[in-house]
Automatic annotation (TrEMBL), chain B:
<dbReference type="InterPro" id="IPR003439">
    <property type="entry name" value="ABC_transporter-like_ATP-bd"/>
</dbReference>
<dbReference type="InterPro" id="IPR017911">
    <property type="entry name" value="MacB-like_ATP-bd"/>
</dbReference>
<dbReference type="InterPro" id="IPR003593">
    <property type="entry name" value="AAA+_ATPase"/>
</dbReference>
<keyword id="KW-0067">ATP-binding</keyword>
<keyword id="KW-0547">Nucleotide-binding</keyword>
<dbReference type="Pfam" id="PF00005">
    <property type="entry name" value="ABC_tran"/>
</dbReference>
<dbReference type="GO" id="GO:0005524">
    <property type="term" value="F:ATP binding"/>
</dbReference>
<keyword id="KW-0813">Transport</keyword>
<dbReference type="InterPro" id="IPR017871">
    <property type="entry name" value="ABC_transporter-like_CS"/>
</dbReference>
TrEMBL record, chain C:
<feature type="domain" description="ABC3 transporter permease C-terminal">
    <location>
        <begin position="360"/>
        <end position="442"/>
    </location>
</feature>
<keyword id="KW-1133">Transmembrane helix</keyword>
<keyword id="KW-0812">Transmembrane</keyword>
<feature type="transmembrane region" description="Helical">
    <location>
        <begin position="210"/>
        <end position="233"/>
    </location>
</feature>
<dbReference type="Pfam" id="PF02687">
    <property type="entry name" value="FtsX"/>
</dbReference>
<keyword id="KW-0472">Membrane</keyword>
<feature type="transmembrane region" description="Helical">
    <location>
        <begin position="475"/>
        <end position="500"/>
    </location>
</feature>
<feature type="transmembrane region" description="Helical">
    <location>
        <begin position="163"/>
        <end position="189"/>
    </location>
</feature>
<feature type="transmembrane region" description="Helical">
    <location>
        <begin position="359"/>
        <end position="381"/>
    </location>
</feature>
Length: 175, 229, 512
């Protein structure tokens, strides 16, 4: 979160409200950020010297403080971008947990009902995202955000299918 | 409802491909037929499009039993009411893109000039107007598929059958073809039956029909309840 | 690469490959048979001195062309020339199922073979197949020699089954033919660069030039000017005229052979401009896209027609000479008050030309058979596009009409051209025959013993009037030849279209 705000500030000084709007605009598929969170994060960035107050304006409303990125802030941002993220060190997914448990629980009918419903939810979301992406008004950020989500849903679905086939094969082998 | 298959059965020699599949498609609907390879999805498409006659069951297109028609009558129907798009290799390599697109119109007896005008306008709508006088061998796979899509749509069919239309394309080229396909289909109110094994491609459809081992798989995961067995 | 590996790789393959190997072997067997037969004719011993009288005749044969030693070189030539369409058939068979073989060779390359090894594998297949074919051909000859060695009531033989060519000749044929075939196969593959990831065939894009037309013109001019040259410069050495004539025929033939691609392309352009309907469009574009497809066979077919037309023209000319000589002989006989008895020369020439016609018919038939392979391959290699078209509702008859048009549209002008060039070459020999126009001593009553008595009044000097006959253009004969050829082509395509139904079977769409 702090690095995203730094990234948004790197395009020019912004005040808190601008930052929130800019965040939601660039990451349309991410969870929308709360004002409070923006201000807390900004406070921490100023404390660490990554951002500084740039000025005050009062454009027909309450006084607002705008912030700008500092030199060390740019260095910090560059460092963050350069850092390679460890590729999925731990698999933490509710889906994985649920499917594993569903397969353990000796109630085939319930597991079947859950998995079917889960797959339907996934495909419905996938259709929704595809529609959003192919909408003539879709912005670039919408498209790449949707792409990201679609790729993950597709991966989930493929994993689900393979897992069930694996279970079926195991069952067959045991017999 | 525009087209319906009832209890369709079809085998290749001793190998059953369809073991009683029923499907009804509404006018203007985009239906994805999905499933693992060998599940019978292409066979279903071929039966619905009248390319192939089912061994059992019937295909009804607008109150007409397609499965009872002669090969000549089905060919006529495919020419006038249906459009077909395959994975690759459907363009005549010796003809230019415009001539390939104009071919169905020429077959219907349209004059050469008129057919070319129509072909050019469709190539334009698919963003490949510049390639009108190129041969298929000279353009990329994605461009070829767009030309093929133009050819499938030039007769303004009521139903478009697409069998893995992006199977041979990379993600972005495939996305463009699918984007054009669904956009134009919705503009024209064309019904689309889209066969694919890819969930991302199926995402372009309104509804999904999943097949497995020649049967409809309601779960989409090959899960058949004990009761159904 | 060990020979066993080579043989294993060369003979690996599908049913189509087997068919190709069998057809290659069969053509090689046929060619071997023809060559051995030619060698056998050459082996017929010369009798008597070389004066050419009837004492040198080998009277044990039924066919006059075998009996007279002077005619045998012609027979040998005809047999050797007949191998050309056979070899063209073999060459075309080599293309059968070639795409699959090319893919196999590409995978062999992927497994680490050098380009040279890949070509070697492909050529080895031809070599092995034609080697087996040659041996089979020789065996066929040896068996046939015994089976057909049946003298008729007069003790005469149909074929020279009483002689055997020398062993060295047989060995040379049986070894030489497969070597030749292998060499030609390697040569034909030079255009195909086998890469590990597929085949890059360098298609001849170059559009055929107009100079081929010029070549045909030069040919006719060379032959046509022969007589004029002989009249204007009578002191030329003897060899000049035959060389000029041969060069002319060669130029005309080459023009025709190189012209096939040009004719195809030009026909395609005309068809595209004026043709109606999708079938014409398909045929036109295909002709323009690859005017050289099947041109090898087409060229052989046209050379057959050209020689046929030339023979027809020569026949008409020689028959006219015979007729005009008969005219003057008849006049002389009448003047002598005798009954005119025609000699057998006209009949003899007619028989010889009928044999030539037979050879031409066989050559045209063989080339048409080779065209079948080209037509079938054209259909099979486009099966995916065809199946897709049928799926979209294109009636098969449109595709059939396109294939027929593609074969016949260039064939019609090409055959007409071949007939014209052949006919013109023959006509350049002479377009009229003269006889008479000289003083002759005749014996009225025909009793020469009476006439030769001194002071006989029966011996008179008379002026034999000049008889002139224009050599007719043998239109009927040429038309028959042309129509027969076109019928053979049409029949070939019709048979080739049998491949259309399986090729457009919609299961082809499933094969990825």
């Amino acid at each position: 979160m702090p690095h995203v705000l730094l990234g948004l500030l790197s395009t020019g000084p912004k005040h808190g409200y601008d930052l929130k709007r800019s965040h939601d605009e660039h990451l349309p598929r991410a969870r929308p950020v709360a004002f409070a969170q923006v201000y807390t994060t900004l406070g921490r960035l100023v404390r660490d010297g990554f951002a500084a107050e740039a000025g005050h304006d009062r454009a027909g409303g309450p006084e607002r403080t705008s912030y700008e990125i500092t030199g060390s802030g740019r260095a910090e941002l560059a460092g963050w971008l350069d850092q390679v993220d460890p590729p999925a060190p731990f698999v933490t997914s509710t889906l994985l947990a649920k499917v594993t448990v569903a397969l353990l629980v000796d109630d085939a009918e319930r597991a079947r009902a859950y998995l079917t419903a889960q797959r339907q939810a996934h495909t419905a979301r996938l259709r929704e995202l595809t529609a959003a992406k192919t909408d003539a008004d879709a912005a670039f950020a919408d498209v790449i955000g949707a792409d990201y989500a679609i790729a993950h849903l597709d991966a989930d679905l493929r994993w689900l299918t393979t897992t069930l086939e694996r279970v079926a094969t195991l069952g067959g082998d045991q017999k | 409802m525009i087209i319906e298959g009832r209890s369709l059965v079809r085998s290749y020699g001793a190998t059953p491909a369809l073991r009683g599949v029923s499907v009804a498609v509404d006018e203007g609907e985009i239906l994805a037929v999905t499933g693992p390879s060998g599940c019978g999805k292409s066979t279903l498409l071929h039966c619905l499009a009248g390319i192939m006659r089912p061994d059992g069951g019937e295909v009804i297109y607008r109150d007409q039993r397609v499965s009872d028609l002669s090969e000549a009558a089905r060919a006529r129907l495919r020419r006038t009411d249906f459009g077909v798009l395959f994975q690759f290799g459907q363009l005549v390599m010796e003809l230019t893109a415009a001539e390939n697109v104009a071919l169905p119109l020429l077959l219907a007896g349209t004059g050469r000039r008129e057919a070319r005008t129509a072909a050019l306008s469709w190539l334009d709508r698919l963003g490949v107007r510049d390639l009108a006088d190129q041969r298929p061998g000279e353009v990329s796979g994605g461009q070829q598929q767009r030309v093929a899509l133009a050819r499938a749509l030039v007769t303004e069919p009521r139903v478009l059958f697409a069998d893995e239309p992006t199977g041979a394309l990379d993600t972005l080229a495939g996305e463009q073809v699918l984007g054009h396909l669904t956009r134009l289909a919705r503009e024209q109110g064309t019904t689309v039956i889209l066969v694919t094994h890819d969930a991302r491609v199926a995402g372009y459809a309104d509804r999904e029909l999943c097949l497995r081992d020649g049967r409809v798989d309601a779960s989409g995961l090959g899960l058949v309840s004990e009761a159904a067995r | 690469m060990r020979p066993t590996t080579l043989a294993r790789l060369a003979l690996a393959g599908s049913r189509t490959d087997t068919l190709r190997v069998v057809l290659t072997a069969a053509s090689a067997a046929l060619a071997t048979l023809l060559f051995v037969l030619a060698a056998a004719v050459a082996t017929i011993p010369h009798l008597g001195d070389s004066s050419g009288g009837s004492e040198t005749w080998a009277r044990q044969y039924r066919l006059q062309v075998l009996v007279e030693p002077g005619l045998r070189p012609g027979v040998i030539m005809a047999l050797a020339l007949l191998t050309i369409p056979v070899l063209a058939l073999a060459g075309q068979c080599g293309r059968l199922g070639a795409p699959a073989r090319d893919r196999r060779l590409a995978t062999i390359r992927l497994a680490g073979a050098t380009p040279g090894q890949a070509v070697l594998v492909a050529a080895a297949e031809t070599g092995v197949a034609s080697g087996l074919g040659s041996v089979a051909g020789l065996a066929l000859y040896l068996v046939g020699r015994r089976v057909l060695h049946r003298p008729d009531a007069d003790g005469r033989l149909l074929l020279p089954t009483d002689v055997v060519p020398p062993a060295w000749a047989l060995v040379a044929i049986v070894l030489g033919l497969p070597l030749l075939a292998t060499g030609v196969a390697a040569l034909l593959l030079r255009r195909v660069a086998f890469t590990p990831y597929g085949i890059a065939r360098q298609v001849r894009r170059r559009s055929p030039r107009v100079w081929v037309g010029l070549l045909m013109g030069i040919g006719v001019a060379l032959v046509g000017s022969g007589q004029a040259v002989a009249r204007w410069a009578p002191d030329l050495p003897d060899w000049v005229l035959p060389v000029q004539f041969f060069a002319g025929v060669l130029a005309g033939t080459c023009g025709l052979v190189f012209g096939t691609g040009w004719i195809s392309a030009a026909t395609g352009r005309v068809l595209l401009r004026f043709g109606r309907g999708p079938a014409a469009l398909l045929a036109a574009r295909r002709l323009m896209a690859d005017p050289w497809s099947g041109s090898r066979v087409f060229a052989v077919l046209l050379v057959g027609v050209l020689f046929g037309a030339g023979a027809a023209g020569l026949r008409a000319h020689i028959m006219t000479i015979m007729a005009v000589e008969a005219d003057s002989n008849r006049w002389s006989a009448q003047a002598q008050g005798e009954q005119y008895l025609p000699d057998g020369r006209a009949d003899f020439h007619a028989t010889a030309f009928t044999l030539v016609d037979g050879v031409v018919a066989v050559a045209v038939g063989l080339s048409a058979a080779a065209m079948l392979v080209a037509v079938a391959e054209g259909i099979v290699s486009r099966r995916r596009a065809y199946a897709s078209l049928v799926a979209t509702g294109v009636p098969r008859r449109v595709l059939a009409r396109a294939a027929l048009l593609q074969a016949l549209a260039p064939a019609v002008p090409a055959v007409v051209l071949a007939l014209t060039v052949g006919g013109a070459l023959a006509r350049a020999f002479g377009d009229e025959a003269r006889s008479g126009g000289y003083d002759n001593t005749i014996c009225v009553g025909g009793d020469w013993s009476a006439c030769e008595e001194p002071g006989s009044t029966k011996l008179v000097e008379v002026w034999v009037p000049e008889f002139v006959r224009a050599t007719p253009v043998p239109f009927a004969h040429l038309a028959l030849l042309g129509a027969g050829t076109l019928a053979a082509v049409a029949l070939t395509v019709a048979v080739g279209l049998l491949f259309l139904r399986p090729a457009t079977d919609l299961t082809e769409l499933r094969a990825v």
